Amino acid sequence: MELAFIVNPISGKRLKGNERVARVKAFVSERKLDAVVWETERGGHAPELATKALEQGARRIVAVGGDGTINEVGRVVVGTDCEFGLVPMGSGNGLARHIGLPLGFDDALKLAASGSAIKVDTGEADGHPFFNVMGIGFDAEVGRRFNETKGRGLINYMREGWKAFRAYKSLKCDIETPDGSRTLSAYIVAVANSSQYGSNAFIAPDASMTDGKLNLVAIAQPHLLSFVILIWRMFSKKLYHSPRVTPICADSFTLNMEAGGIFHVDGEIFQCGETLTVKARPKSLRIVAMSC
Ligand SMILES: Nc1ncnc2c1ncn2[C@@H]1O[C@H](COP(=O)(O)OP(=O)(O)OP(=O)(O)O)[C@@H](O)[C@H]1O
After folding, report:
1. Same domain, 84 and 136
2. Domain DAGKc spans what residues (predicted)?
3. Domain of residue 203, residue span
4. How many Å lie between the centroid of ligand 1 and the Cα of residue 240?
5. In the chain, which residues have pLDDT < 70?
6. pLDDT for residue 164
7. Is residue 255 within a helix (H) or strand (E), and if so which, with residue range?
8. pLDDT tens per residue across span 5-45
9. DSSP assignment letter at 210
10. Do the domain assignments include residue 230?
11. Domain for residue 215, yes or no?
12. Cβ proximity of 99 and 290 under 8 Å
């Protein structure tokens, strides 16, 4: 088997359910590809399907879904010789946008099936692989709330962000890198492999996926007006111009907090203790990309 497509039928807002799977199956049969098309039936199913595809000798696995699905498939493919293709069908599609993929279904499908792959860096937070962005603080709180709502898309994300803004207070974090350490009172500590969360909201505008490093971005607690300005800066790639923002580029970080809590990797939530270790895995993933 050359290719395996793993399709999440419920991610994002476009072509949901049977239609999405039917379109991928039609694509495969029209082109007589040596491929399987498997549909995820529940959360956590995609890694099982990706493992099965690897065992059956797939040379390329294509994830059709949002950043959560991409993470679930990518965490199986990372560190292997198998190539990884994406058909972005999520809410924000941060990774797909960073690597220059078309967002239209048919164009993305063609590229994922036949485009060439390049080796890129990935990240790992307490052993959990990530490809786009991980974070603690407000960042993780918004992810937690968003995952608990049924609605998807940027508007729902902004709505949960606003609710979290009113409830969340900053945390004290000691950040260690190979070059030294510093203690900050941070509202968000995000560590980015790619440049954006999704929907062209740039958390680390200078991030590269081939430099062997990750970009930590710490943001101090904003009041309402500066919160709005921070969002504007994010969408205009000017976040680093804010006096509330501290960017640090390194290949590894140890985050020491006063208490354990939650963190997210590509929007999926996990628990952590007082210490969280985040590190880059240089050139660990062969991904179909236009740029990186
Ligand atoms: N058949 C299914 N039913 C319910 N949940 C599923 C199913 N298949 C996959 N999932 C889960 O759906 C969740 C959301 O998927 P994904 O992140 O791809 O979409 P999204 O949240 O709409 O997009 P984004 O992450 O870009 O906002 C994942 O955690 C995945 O485990």
Report:
1. no
2. 1-129
3. 128-281
4. 31
5. 153
6. 84
7. strand 252-257
8. 999 999 887 887 789 999 999 999 999 999 999 999 999 99
9. S
10. yes
11. yes
12. yes
How confident is the model at residue 168, as a pLDDT?
78
> For a pocket test of ligand 1, which of 5, 11, 15, 18 has the largest count of ligand atoms closer than 8 A to its C-beta?
11
* pTM of this structure: 0.92
pLDDT of res. 192: 98
Q: Which of 5, 10, 86, 148 to mutate to test the pocket of ligand 1 (most atoms within 8 A of CB)?
A: 10
Residues 93, 199: one domain? no
* pLDDT in the model for residue 139: 87
For ligand 1, residues with CB inside 6 Å are 8-12, 40-45, 65-69, 72, 90-93, 152, 198, 267
**CA nearest neighbour of 192 among 174, 224, 219:** 219
Same domain for 144 and 199? yes
Number of residues assigned to the chain: 292
Q: Which two tokens stand for residue 42?
A: 């529940």
Same domain, 175 and 248: yes
Q: Helix H segments across the chain? A: 18-30, 45-55, 67-77, 94-98, 105-114, 138-148, 153-167, 224-235
Could you give the ipTM of this predicted complex?
0.94
Q: How far is the CA of 224 from the centre of ligand 1 (A)?
A: 31
pLDDT at 142: 87
